[in-house]
Amino acid sequence: MTDAFSYVDSHRDHFLAELKEYLAIQSISTLSEKNDETRRAAEWTAEKLRAAGLSEVQIYPTPKHPIVYGAWLGAPGAPTVLIYGHYDVQPVDDPEKKWVSDPFTPEVRGENLYARGASDDKGQVYANIKAIEALMHANGGRLPVNVKFLIEGEEEIGSPNLDHFINANKDLLACDVAVISDTAILAPDQPSIVYALRGLTYLEIEVHGPDHDLHSGQFGGTVHNPLQALCEIIAALHNPDGSIAIEGFYDKVRPIDAAEREAMAKTPLSEETWRTQTGAPHSWGEPAYTLRERIGARPTLEVNGIWGGFTGEGSKTVLPAKATAKVSCRLVADQDPYEVEELIRAQVKKLTPPTVKSLVRGLNHGYPAIVPIDSAAVGAAVAAYRRGFGAEPVFLREGGSIPVVATFYKVLGVPVLLVGYGLPDDGAHGPNEKYNLTCLYNGIKTSAALLEEISKLTPEKLRL
Amino acid sequence: MTDAFSYVDSHRDHFLAELKEYLAIQSISTLSEKNDETRRAAEWTAEKLRAAGLSEVQIYPTPKHPIVYGAWLGAPGAPTVLIYGHYDVQPVDDPEKKWVSDPFTPEVRGENLYARGASDDKGQVYANIKAIEALMHANGGRLPVNVKFLIEGEEEIGSPNLDHFINANKDLLACDVAVISDTAILAPDQPSIVYALRGLTYLEIEVHGPDHDLHSGQFGGTVHNPLQALCEIIAALHNPDGSIAIEGFYDKVRPIDAAEREAMAKTPLSEETWRTQTGAPHSWGEPAYTLRERIGARPTLEVNGIWGGFTGEGSKTVLPAKATAKVSCRLVADQDPYEVEELIRAQVKKLTPPTVKSLVRGLNHGYPAIVPIDSAAVGAAVAAYRRGFGAEPVFLREGGSIPVVATFYKVLGVPVLLVGYGLPDDGAHGPNEKYNLTCLYNGIKTSAALLEEISKLTPEKLRL
Hints:
By secondary structure, chain A is an alpha+beta fold. Helix content of chain A is 36%, strand content 21%. The first copy, chain A, folds into three domains: 2-197 and 368-463, Zn peptidases (Aminopeptidase), CATH 3.40.630.10; 199-253 and 299-366, Alpha-Beta Plaits (2-Layer Sandwich), CATH 3.30.70; 256-293, no CATH class. In chain A, the strands form five sheets. A six-stranded mixed β-sheet of chain A has the order 1-2-6-3-7-17, with helices on both faces. In chain A, strands 11-13-9-14 form a four-stranded antiparallel β-sheet. The two termini of chain A are 26 Å apart. Strand 11 (300-309) of chain A pairs antiparallel with strand 11 (300-309) of chain B, so a sheet runs across the interface.
């Protein structure tokens, strides 16, 4: 392992330059006009897998963005590790010019590399690829375990084709443990392991009033303004205490038990830290739960976007025909994302007065997941972090959603390790997304160490 | 007058072709990138005033869009009539491609001419100019009264420079009566005279939460989402019965007396007609007032636009840093638009919880107005409509706002006649704005007849 680690240290500049290439590709999966760029990111990923020493590298087409696969299966009898990540990135809408440098012209400032996708998830995918390269170099072209890579291009749009691909390729993807690097650790000197993820129900609510835009002076006062009606519906989806006012919403929510509350209390998120990270004036949410619990262990309902009427410069006295909102719920075990969509649909229907019409359109869905923290697989991850970052990792719940975790469990029947190298303030999905360079280099080391740690276990032990 | 009327009838095709030229100019005053087009509309207006026979035609610059002035003062002792209109138009935002023909490529379909500004207000300005041409032609180059035109280019953005211009040019604009053609009649065979207008307070409400966009999974549940907070504030600005929930908002509202209610009941707006005109599923608003009263005699609060977060294709799980709404109030006598802004500001402040910050930005203001319906000036308008449209006009309150009415009263000390030629379903401010061709031709006739009717009165009688 010393050899692999020194390979990493001596190739820092090279790795940085190469990652910048990756980040310059505008693989925004939600924008169809970027399809060529997204395709280019898939090809770049495949090429680097090949260069790292994997064989069987293939780009599998899907109805939208391709899936990149690569494997090295030269260690018969040793465990097989499936490594998942995604090469697509979020959009960069920047009406207020908040990006300090261009999102697709990666730039190092201080300890960080700034670019869209730097942390979510290209930087972490890249760390896993370079770990293979370092191990191959250190071990004469061999790895201590069998390895399969599955890197998709549709994570940011809800992975519409991934489940189908996994179900149709169970043999190709057969493994003993899956590893996902798409989460954050607490700090460069405080690694952490995420053992629970929230699920997702993402939908649009549309409110229709008149069948064409009206002059507010000619009809104002007699028409239920769709923007106002939408605001009334959205306002009614929360109770004054911050809890969600949808009938049945909490029915399947698994309560946090005393032991877990105690464990979560070990990594408290203070109001002060929260304010530094968010810049918001005061925290909000269910008063019976700590900030950490609200983020990781409780479901939420967020408005992700609203639009309607005149939004240009100056004033236009229009009474618009319709109004639309994008709304999403983060779900926890054991909520079902499709059931939640139906609950929201029923509630919106109930909240819609006869003066307007409403429509709920489901966009995507992901199941929540919890990973067993006392398994041998998690033990290997703990050891790997200890070696890669030189510090003992703590256990965390994570507020985000990685729906594939539930699929790996269900379809491949293996434990899933969330071994992430991002940081909480990386700005994933927002402006000035960054990746900490210490996290990059120690991430490569941790990823290499993880494969070595896993090689000490039998496939049977891993799967327990 | 027979001569003037036959001049109109024999020039229909010519007038239509010329008006199309006017409507093809994209004089959208709120968009600074259209400044050249707006300037071109001013020049076109000036040229047609000159061609109609006015002298002293001048384009006066303002800090934004110029004011066009023209006069014919060859009837000493006869009354002087000031005719006001505007050559600027509303934007055409058409994300859903609702315009059947291009808004700036005027097209006749059936009885109507379709184009942005066709009814509001270029078509009506044009009718007034052509009335001068017809009278000049019929009377050997003379008019029965003195005439001044004041055509501005900033009406659709709240006339920010008009009050200053009027105050600074009292002598230039001195007159005995003012005429504005920027309102609708009930139907081509049912002319009507608007005797009351609503005022306007237009503002933006901005809600700020975190200082940058966040990942909804990483912070959702602890941050008061600014879009949600904005919805909560907006929802709380109305009571469940449709009345406005702003403290003090109704304090200065002049009640509708029994006589006026009776008069308004003579031109009822039925639920059925309302539905045909709006296409909305069911009417809304203060139950104690009829639809006609809600539109004309009661103040309103409308959301004209909202935006924030991700509004593109697909799903992005962003928790946005801010949310903005454009909100406007239609005011009735004796509300003060600046006072109303302060009332809204205070209410929004009261509704803003400590978890977010809010900001109210005033955009523009107009005073409500009521015109005395038993005056000699209104009598002249009644006679003119009777002759131009061949039917007896009825009296109406109008829901819209023409702030200059209050200024003419206050600064020039003259009665203001609202002699409009639009129709209620012209789609002013919306897609497929149109102008009825009967209204165009009969409008020119009415405008000519009005000047002749006014010539029968002395300046003293007019001003009473």
